Amino acid sequence: MVRVAVAHAAAQHIAQSHGIEILHIKGPALDPEITWEGREGTDADVLLRASEAPAFVEALAQSGWRLRSRFENSSAFEHSATLWHDLWGYVDVHRLFPGIGIDPDAAFERLWSDHTETLIAEVRCPVPSLPGQILLVLLHAAREGGSPRSLRDVSSAWESATPKQKAAVVELVDELRASVAFAAATGTLDEYRDARDYDLWAVSLRGGTRLQEWRARIKAAPTRRDALRLALRAVLVNTDHLAMIRGHQPSRTEVVVEFFARPVRGVTETWRARRGRQARP
Amino acid sequence: MNTHLRRPGRVATVPGLPDEDGIPSRYVALLPNGPMIVIAGTAALIWEETDTGEEATLPARVAARLGNSVAATEIDADVRGFVDQLVSSGFLERYDAASEN
Fold it and tell me: Which helix (H) or strand (E) holds B78?
């Protein structure tokens, strides 16, 4: 917890000295009212304008942080870059927040417009308003596939919220066009079966094979061009993820081996999923 | 001159666990790149008292926190030496309260 708190403070210091506005999200940035005792994070999460993300990553790199995972390799949503500092550990830089449908910079402006501040490691850190924090907790929980931790997050942030707070969150959901992910978090996803990103949230929430995830990503792409780009990327190897698993940058041979292993894993997962369905009475 | 001490903007601090005397330790980090130190025991008491008044009266305030079981004059050199270390390492800075009001 000490390290995560100081990582937030360090990120804030760097952002401020480079004139970049960031919002601290999750972990120690959360209002105690919407989190629960004993919930501990392993990294410091910050959100900023997508247009300023490359400059901020560069600023962090100048202060001793090393890039561990690029935006493109973070998740099905390509939302964050992960950096490591030998003293402060991990920071996750979010250029967008999965589940929010409007333009990422416009979403940041909206969240920034009514932000407040909290002290983290005695450094003043900007954080979203309380409804903004509740919404981000819910959207994050929707991605965690109904894990015990995410269920508890939903319970603390949403079920314990007052009617007035809930109304403010719902208003924000509309403004940010976050209805599908919000529904995934609050148990009403099936009301959005016709939505373009329904499959993506269904896979995030209920699990699925790699193949299903890629299909859902392509279906959720806002334009045909994005869909094509994703379809082409689906066959590439995530070298950042591979480096984390192996503990070193993968060699050419390992990339080649992984290139062949991935489709096999995708097939195996699909096969297992089908076999599981058939075995069920 | 009315010299006070304060934590510079580039210093982050997080409370740590208490020692056997019940005095909470404190992690103090220099941003953005370190180092981070842990201040424990009576050193943590001195840290807590640094920004509560004039630097000149700091040994007396620390002595009071120790229940006046020691005299301010007895700990004066140690307290000042510790504060000088913190200032020279960048964890604290001196300022003239009169000129900032």
Answer: helix B72-88
User: Do A47 and A12 form a contact (C-beta atoms < 8 A)?
Assistant: no
- What's CA A263's distance to the chain center, in Å? 25
Q: Provide ipTM, 2 decimals.
A: 0.90
Structure tokens that stand for A155 in this block: 């319970």
Q: How many CB pairs lie under 8 A apart between chains A and B?
A: 49
Chain B residues touching residue A121 (CB < 8 angstroms): 12-14, 29
Q: Which of B14, B27, B48, B91 to mutate to probe the A interface, most A CBs <10 Å?
A: B14
Give the separation between CA A237 and CA A47, rounded to whole angstroms.
26
Q: Determine if the pTM surpasses 0.95.
A: no
CA-based nearest distance B31→chain A, Å: 6
pLDDT on residue A92:
96
Smallest CA–CA distance, residue A223 to chain B, in Å, is 40
The pLDDT tens digits of the residues spanning A112-136 come to 999 999 999 999 999 999 999 999 9
Q: Which amino acid is at B66?
A: L
Residue ranges of alpha helices (H) inside chain A are 2-17, 53-62, 104-113, 130-143, 148-154, 163-176, 179-186, 198-206, 210-220, 224-233, 239-246, 252-279
